[in-house]
Amino acid sequence: xxxxxxxxxxxxxxxxxxxxxxxxxxxxxxxxxxxxxxxxxxxxxxxxxxxxxxxxxxxxxxxxxxxxxxxxxxxxxxxxxxxxxxxxxxxxxxxxxxxxxxxxxxxxxxxxxxxxx
Length: 117
Description:
By secondary structure, this protein is of the alpha+beta class. The chain contains two helices and five strands.
């Protein structure tokens, strides 16, 4: 089992937990939280995972949107064309790519880059 010590240090797997440690049966989404009872703090690793998934899905949307804008330029506007110019979507792509560990307010989802409107 994983053991957490009073100083916040987590240590490997033990059959019998060392004295003074708090045994944790399995590493769950709360294992890296600051212990502020009666509630838990947000899980930093879970927040990063959510934001990384959002960034990847948003980059896919942006690529599709840039393709749709190219089609619209030749007079064949697709039904899924969203608002915003090519320049706005290129700028947004740069902001989304930079939404990563160590950059700005990452992983605060309320501070995510906003889509062109």
